[in-house]
Amino acid sequence: MPLSEQEIVRREKLHKLRDMGIDPYPAAQYHVTTSTAAIKSHFEEGKKVVIAGRLMSRRIQGKASFAELQDGKGKIQVYFNRDEICTGDDKTLYNEVYKKLLDIGDFIGIEGELFTTNVGEQTIMVKNFVLLSKALKPLPLPKTDADGNTYDEFNDPEMRYRQRYADLVVNPSVKDVFVKRTKLFNAMRSFFNEREYFEVETPILQPIPGGAAAKPFVTHHNSLDIPLYMRIANELYLKRLIVGGFDGVYEFSKNFRNEGMDRTHNPEFTAMEIYVSYKDYNWMMEFTENLLEHCAVAVNGGTKSTFGQHEIEWKAPYPRVTMTDAIKQFTGFDITGKTEAELYDFAKSIDIEVDQSMGKGKLIDEIFGEKCEGNFIQPTFITDYPKEMSPLCKTHRENPELTERFELMVCGKEIANAYSELNDPIDQRERFEAQAALADRGDDEAMFIDQDFLRALEYGMPPTSGLGIGMDRLIMFLTNNPSIQEVLFFPQMRPEKKAGVELNEDEKIVFERLKKHQKADLNHLKEESGLSNKKWDKAVKGLTNKKVAKVSKTDDGLFIELSS
RNA sequence: GACUUGGUAGCUCAGCUGGUAGAGCAUCACACUUUUAAUGUGAGGGUCCUGGGUUCGAACCCCAGCCAAGUCACCA
Question: What is the mean pLDDT of residues A367-381?
Answer without folding.
Answer: 91
